[in-house]
Design brief:
about 450 residues; alpha/beta; Rossmann fold; 4-stranded parallel beta sheet
């Protein structure tokens, strides 16, 4: 009999206070004392031990806009990134379906970083050998983290946007009978985690803000760069709840949706030169481009001591927030903030409006990248900090913006054909089915059934 390990339901990831008290207590203790123990699966949540959503409202001295820029941050998830949530959800759904079995199957996680790190952590905790496939030019810290969790990796040619090479490697691996590829780019469990858990966590955050007298209790816009396009699924729930505008971001160095473009870039975790299966592009209201060098310079500003001093002493950012900003953001998080500022400017949002985005990971993934930035562009000085604030944050430009009109949405959608039908074996009827909003609603509604099956399987 396989030794199955089970973790939390979608409901428990959203509401960890619904986890049986003894399990929740043990999980919180293990998070600090035994981070590799399987009980930590019950720490996959946006919430802290007091069941409050973890978020930061950026001070307007930094953003330069009147709207509230609200950032949910993933630093406190078990792997240091919220991507462990989709990783676990994909594995758990497949285990409940009987598609994977510990001891019988090796799990392969195609990724450009954080999903793979999540797989390196989740797989062994569930009892599976795990292999991460990711591009060779990702940060060294990513490779180190994968090994530290007990997984192995295969480095494929290229950088962040070279996902085709990952797919090719996975196709070769899949020829072995024991291999199971858990593809975040097509697995609807990724979509379900973010629609249900991330989306409803945003709802709770903006409602909690209103109770404190900040904002109107709604999300005027949800802004997210697309990697697997899992996170942006939260926008589908928010749009139904608040008529939220959904704004997708991609690097200007690889403008796939913007102009059918291609290219290399270094906003690690986003912009993968294809439109993913799980991305509901027909529901997206705008597309904006962000620059990878500006994103990395922005992280330099937030993380280097001279940048923090400038934020506090010259800009007037509180020392408490400056300290958090120095550790809680990675490159894609800064890119998301730049996109959120552009969104606030573009739509003319005011002081009661909340523009919500995500910090996927944090600085601990990027010391090597920051060292290279300092070598190439120079360390942060007071004049350089002032220039970065003015040009990157306060001066965020209203360029590289497309609105989601009928023709743009159709064009974005049609780009799916080339990856999913020509390369990955989907059929045209399967693709066309996604044009119907009910297709997406049907996948959203499967959360309750998976939760029921999981409770039955684990016995509580």
């Amino acid at each position: 009999m396989p030794n199955y390990v089970y973790g939390p339901t979608f409901d428990e990831m959203l509401h960890p206070d619904h986890i049986p008290g003894d399990i929740r207590k043990r999980a919180l203790k293990a998070l600090k004392e035994a981070p590799l123990e399987p009980i930590n699966l019950f720490n996959i949540t946006w919430k802290d031990p007091e069941n409050r959503v973890r978020y930061i409202v950026l001070e307007k001295a930094l953003t330069g806009v009147e709207a509230n820029i609200v950032v949910l941050y993933g630093k406190e998830f078990p792997t240091g990134s919220h991507k462990v949530g989709p990783t676990y959800s994909v594995a758990m759904e497949k285990q409940l379906h009987g598609e994977i079995e510990p001891g019988a199957h090796t799990l392969v996680w195609p990724s450009t970083g954080n999903y793979g790190i999540g797989g390196a952590w989740v797989g062994p905790r569930l009892g599976y050998k795990s292999v991460v496939v990711l591009p060779e030019l990702m940060s060294q810290e990513r490779f180190d983290r994968i090994k530290s969790y007990g997984a192995t990796y295969i480095a494929t040619p290229g950088c962040e946007s070279n996902v085709k090479e990952i797919y090719d490697a996975c196709k070769e691996l899949a020829k072995k009978g024991e291999i199971r590829v858990l593809n975040q780019f097509e697995a609807m469990a990724n979509y379900r985690f973010h629609h249900h858990v991330t989306g409803n966590s945003v709802v709770e955050a903006v409602e909690e803000m209103k109770a404190r007298g900040v904002g109107n209790g709604k999300a005027a816009a949800f802004v997210s760069a697309m990697g697997s396009a899992g996170t942006i699924a939260a926008g589908d729930l928010l749009k139904r709840r608040f008529e939220t505008r959904i704004v997708g971001l991609e690097p200007v160095q690889c403008p796939t949706l913007f102009m059918n473009g291609y290219g290399g870039h270094d906003i690690q975790g986003i912009g993968d030169k294809h439109v993913t299966w799980i991305h509901n592009v027909l529901n997206m209201d705008a597309l904006m481009g962000v620059d990878d060098i500006e994103s990395k310079k922005g992280l330099q500003l937030l993380s280097e001591p001279a940048g923090q001093e400038y934020l506090v002493n010259d800009l007037g950012v509180s020392s408490e927030q400056a300290a958090k900003l120095s550790t809680h953001f990675g490159i894609s998080g800064v890119a998301n903030v730049i996109g959120a500022i552009k969104t606030a400017k573009f739509y003319g949002f005011g002081p009661n409006d909340n523009v919500v985005t995500i910090a996927t990971d944090s600085l601990d993934r990027y010391p090597s990248v920051m060292a290279e930035m300092a070598k190439t562009y120079g360390a942060i000085t007071r004049p350089r900090a002032a220039a970065y604030v003015e040009s990157i944050f306060h001066g965020a430009k209203l360029d590289w913006i497309q609105e989601g009109d009928k023709l743009n949405r159709q064009r974005w959608f049609n780009l799916k054909y080339f990856t999913w039908v020509e390369q990955q074996g989907k059929t045209i009827p399967e693709l066309n089915a996604q044009r119907d909003p009910d297709w997406w609603t049907g996948h959203q509604e499967q959360v309750a059934e998976f939760d029921r099956r999981l409770r039955q399987a684990r016995g509580f």
